[in-house]
Design a protein that fits this description.
The complex is a heterodimer of chains A (about 160) and B (about 775).
Chain A: E1 2-6, E2 9-13, H1 21-28, E3 47-50, E4 53-56, H2 62-65, E5 69-71, H3 80-91, H4 101-114, H5 120-127, H6 137-148
Parallel strand pairs in A: 1-5
Antiparallel strand pairs in A: 1-2, 3-4, 3-5
Helix pairs in contact in A: 3-4, 3-6, 4-5
Chain B: H1 7-11, H2 17-23, H3 29-34, H4 60-63, E1 64-66, E2 72-76, H5 85-97, E3 104-108, H6 113-116, H7 126-153, E4 160-163, E5 166-169, E6 174-177, H8 178-186, H9 217-221, E7 237-242, E8 250-255, H10 257-261, E9 265-271, E10 285-290, H11 293-301, E11 304-308, H12 317-329, E12 335-339, H13 342-348, E13 351-359, E14 371-377, E15 380-385, H14 390-401, E16 408-412, H15 426-437, E17 443-446, H16 449-454, E18 462-470, E19 476-484, H17 501-504, E20 517-521, H18 539-556, H19 561-569, E21 574-575, E22 595-596, H20 597-610, E23 621-630, E24 633-643, E25 649-659, H21 666-685, E26 691-692, E27 695-696, E28 715-720, H22 738-753
Parallel strand pairs in B: 2-3, 7-17, 15-16, 19-20, 25-28
Antiparallel strand pairs in B: 1-2, 4-5, 5-6, 7-10, 8-11, 9-10, 12-20, 13-18, 14-15, 14-17, 18-19, 21-22, 23-24, 24-25, 26-27
Helix pairs in contact in B: 5-7, 7-8, 14-15, 18-22, 21-22
Classes of the chains: A alpha+beta (about 160), B alpha+beta (about 775).
Chain lengths: ~160, ~775
């Protein structure tokens, strides 16, 4: 039995230590907001926060997540920044199919929590690990700026 | 013979029309887009939505219900994959219904074409075909509510008005909400089509409004959205499949002992593939069932399988490219279009220009890989999955399981990307087969990313040879184009080697230029992989070649590319598609949808104006133009590039002008075009699927690369051309922007660097030493 702290709640799971956090969340805990995209930390769809840091859940074994504060897309709206990002995403109509957007929002929130007024270069660095096959990147950049209250975000 | 039956369909491989129709699926893209207007000798030809399997439905009884509390439930029967159809179609109905959107709920239809009409969500035509039926549904329901109120009050129906969820009788000041009227209204007859009074466009609440509203946005950003991969059922198991690594291969033998020793692995068994042409049926392979997805993946890694690779074991992309290039290097003997005498005109030309273009196989690589959950209870199969064609999934599951279609339910989830991949429901059939093997126990099948890239229905691979003759004034007198590419028909029919009518009509045969001598040839090419449609389909390679070549000709003639292109198009006029050899015309009526050169000129003029085309640019910077007509929409693109001394490329801006007729949901039109720009850049810059020893060489996003945020333009400006009214024919939106992106980019790179790129993807061609 492993105990995890997820979105401020304590949860116990029975899974092997090497089981990636992604499959623990999705298959064992039924938290399907965190998405599977590649399994090799190449696409960012499974991004969650571990003690405030964005990590790829598909490459985070259960053993590494235990004892850390885990935040997923289901809980990120509890923070002011996470909520601002979600609002900006809705306001600018960022999502198309929406599948990658949980990971995009987790990466964007982590960026803004560290750098409340990011530059374009900061956005490039923080967001280029998150793939979007629908191609919503231009709106993602604008939405991050909107959430940050920067110029270049849409009104 | 029906004038609109594509010749290529009957010409190929000795197939008669009848035998081909038998070989083709009952529904699905090929039949529905490939054979418009097929009708008995005495029936008039049908077009658009009417020509699709099961046609159109417009009864409010099918699409609307109103609860006593006033909640309006609107059924959407098309699949949501990011194009916004769950927002756009119901809002059309709600507008005509005069519904208050805050009281509307969306209900996703299962696969059932008898009831809902055609459900193929592909071909950029959900709005094109369903705008008017949805308006009629809403108007009919509104009139029924008004009549119910009038009857209750004993007043003439002409004196009552249904506005924003309330029916009012002004003379007496009485009013009733839709909820209070619902039961009485439901008992009335549905008004006949000719008695419907559609709203005046000035009164539209939702249609054409730029409010950016998206019905699923809230659940998406909070992680509550449900895709096919997210389904959970009590007692569910998890499965992955080891499929034959070579198309057409099968399992010779396997040893599951190591896999079965792993914790969580429950069962291992083989499922059989379907011999080619297998259309949407599974490839077969060895199934690993486990207690979670991770255990299933680990179990699969521990399998020992001996494969029989079958007839395509030698498929090699390097060798195949040479074969395709050899095929287009010589005359094909027969032309698919032949205007005038191109050979003679080329011989007499003052200047001849020739170029060869290559576009590789591509994968769809939807962010949500194929996934489906199935169970069988009391001889009934139920599947939850992300498919573009729930009706096809239903038929194929029934067929493979030996059940009646009425015993199969396909529940449609949100799709984490579709792009044509999820029109082919092989993964839904796989999940159903696995559940059947587990005595009906619920099971979720997940494709891993390597499964997705190894076993896709790939975009074809194409070599093209183009030649043109210019006269002394730089005017084009002859155009010769040879394209060799395996056909999509190969998944439906045994061994066809030439393009079908709809593939020819995707930007090859229907070249709209005012050139007196045009010859198009289609030398044979064999398919050694599953070939399928990918967003924009054959336009990808046809627009790349044609729009690059026009820029090359302009350069040879020392003319401005835009002016040269406009001259090539000639004056504004309407061309009947059959005159261009295109008997398909996207399944649309040639009278309603002629090729309108004025509209194509219009988007070119608009986009070049918006992009500041005539500005001088320093070395290392350039603008590139391309224009394409596809899915009955007119599209022109200007890409701006910067290339530094190291050959590093950046793309500050893309301008797109499109004329799609009336714009029903302008924000979703913009987002579709923005997204198509990025997907087009992926194809132009990075993406390529190659085969060696019959096996796909790429396995994940590190070697099948797609565009990332850092290369995306900071500005994508989408300019929607105004339409004269909502009675004008609609164009498609999801796909048409893809085609012009790669050629516009390469034309921009040429303007910036003088280097001409004729093969996709670009990869390191700019930095590589020649």
């Amino acid at each position: 039995m492993t105990t995890l702290q997820i979105n401020g709640q304590s949860m116990t799971v029975e899974a092997g230590d090497d089981t990636p956090l992604l499959w623990v969340l999705r298959d064992h805990l039924g938290m399907t907001g965190t998405k599977f995209g590649c399994g090799l930390a190449l696409c960012g769809a499974c991004t969650v926060h571990l003690d405030g840091q964005p990590v790829r859940a598909c490459q985070t074994p259960l053993s590494a997540a235990s004892g850390k504060k885990i935040v997923t897309i289901e809980g990120v709206g509890a923070s002011k920044t996470g909520q601002a990002v979600q609002h900006a995403w809705v306001k600018l109509g960022v999502p198309q199919c929406g599948y990658c957007q949980a990971g995009q929002i987790m990466s964007a929130t982590a960026l803004l929590q560290k750098k409340p007024k990011p530059t374009d270069a900061d956005i490039d660095a923080a967001m280029s690990g998150n793939l979007c096959r629908c191609g919503t990147y231009t709106r993602i950049r604008s939405a991050i700026k909107t959430a940050a209250g920067l110029e270049g975000g849409a009104a | 013979m029906n004038a609109f039956l594509p010749q290529a369909l009957t010409r190929n491989a000795g197939l008669s029309r009848r035998s081909l129709l038998r070989a083709l699926p009952l529904t699905g893209l090929v039949l529905s887009v490939g054979l418009p207007g097929i009708a008995g000798a005495d029936e008039p030809a049908k077009f658009g939505g009417d020509a699709m399997p099961h046609g159109l439905q417009d009864s409010p009884r099918t699409f609307v219900s109103i609860a006593p509390d006033g909640t309006v439930s609107i059924v959407v029967h098309r699949s949501e994959m990011g194009q916004g159809v769950r927002t756009s179609l119901p809002r059309v109905l709600a507008d005509e219904l005069e519904a208050d959107w805050s009281k509307v709920k969306i209900v996703q239809a299962p696969g059932d074409e008898e009831k809902y009409g055609n459900q193929d969500t592909d071909g950029s035509r959900s709005m094109r075909h369903w705008f008017m039926p949805m308006r009629r549904c809403g108007a009919a329901a509104r009139q029924m509510l008004a009549l119910a109120a009038a009857q209750q009050w004993g007043v003439p129906v002409a004196e009552v008005q249904a506005i924003n969820h309330v029916v009012t009788h002004k003379p007496s000041g009485r009013s009733l909400g839709y909820g209070a009227l619902a039961e009485a209204a439901a008992k009335l007859d549905v008004p006949k089509r000719e008695s419907l009074r559609l709203k005046d466009a000035k009164d539209f609440r939702y249609i054409g409004k730029q409010d950016g509203y998206l019905v699923d946005a809230e659940v998406i950003v909070t992680g509550r959205s449900q895709y096919g991969i997210d389904t959970r059922l009590p007692g569910m198991l998890y499965a992955v499949i080891a499929r034959p690594p070579v198309f057409g291969g099968k399992v010779k033998s396997f040893d599951a002992a190591d896999a079965l020793r792993l914790p969580g692995v429950v069962k291992v068994f083989e499922i059989a593939g379907t011999p080619a042409p297998a259309e949407f049926q599974p490839l077969g392979g060895v199934v690993v069932v486990a207690k979670d997805t991770w255990a299933a993946i680990k179990g699969r890694e521990a399998l020992k399988i001996v494969w029989d690779d079958g007839p395509h074991a030698g498929y090699d992309s390097v060798a195949f490219r040479k074969a395709l290039e050899a095929a287009v290097a010589k005359p094909a003997g027969k032309a698919v279009r032949n205007d005038g005498d191109a050979e003679a005109a080329l011989a007499q030309a003052a200047k001849r220009v020739a170029a060869d273009y290559y576009v590789p196989h591509l994968a769809h690589a939807t962010m949500e890989p194929p996934a489906a959950t199935a169970r069988l209870v009391d001889g009934r199969c139920e599947v939850w999955t992300s498919v573009q064609s729930p009706q096809a999934a239903r038929e194929r599951v029934a067929q493979r399981l030996g059940l009646g279609v009425d015993k199969v339910t396909i529940n449609v989830t949100l799709l984490g990307g579709g792009f044509g991949r999820k029109s082919k429901p092989d993964f839904a059939v796989e999940a159903a087969l696995i559940s059947q093997q587990l005595q009906g126990q619920p099971v979720k099948l997940t494709w891993t990313r390597d499964d997705d890239l190894h076993h896709d229905y790939f975009h074809t691979v194409t070599a093209q040879h183009l030649e043109a003759g210019l006269d002394a004034q730089g005017k084009v007198t002859a155009w010769l184009q040879r394209a060799a590419e395996p056909t999509i028909l190969s998944i439906f029919a045994p061994d066809p080697k030439q393009l079908s009518g709809f593939e020819l009509g995707l930007g090859l045969i229907n070249l709209p230029y005012a050139i007196p001598n045009i010859r198009i040839e289609n030398p044979p090419a064999e398919a050694h992989a599953r070939i399928g449609w990918l967003r924009s389909v054959n336009n990808i390679q046809h627009a790349f070649a044609a729009q690059s070549f026009v820029a090359e000709l302009a350069h040879a003639a020392r003319r401005d590319h835009r002016d040269f292109l406009l001259d090539l198009l000639g004056p504004a006029r309407q061309i009947p598609p059959p005159q261009l050899g295109d008997g398909w015309n996207h399944g649309e009526s040639p009278q309603v949808y002629p090729v309108d050169i004025g509209r194509l000129r219009g988007v070119i003029e608009r986009v070049t104006q918006e992009a500041g085309w005539s500005r001088k640019r320093p070395k290392g910077q350039g603008l590139g133009l391309a224009a394409n007509y596809s899915f009955v929409t007119y599209m022109a693109v200007v890409v701006e590039v910067k290339v530094n001394a190291k050959g590093e490329l950046s793309i500050p801006r893309i301008d797109v002008a499109l004329d799609c007729g009336p714009a029903i949901n302008p924000d979703r039109i913009r987002s579709q075009v923005e997204g198509a720009c990025i997907m087009g850049l992926s194809q132009a810059l990075y993406s390529e699927i190659t085969f060696k020893n019959g096996r796909v060489e790429q396995s994940n996003y590190h070697d099948f690369e797609i565009a990332r945020l850092n290369i995306a333009p900071k500005t994508i400006a989408v300019h929607i051309m105004p339409s004269s009214g909502y009675d004008q024919p609609l164009g498609g939106v999801g796909e048409p922007a893809i085609g012009p992106i790669a050629p516009a980019l390469m034309n921009a790179i040429f303007a910036a660097t003088g280097k001409r790129i004729r093969q996709l993807p670009l990869k390191d061609q700019l930095s590589r030493k020649a």
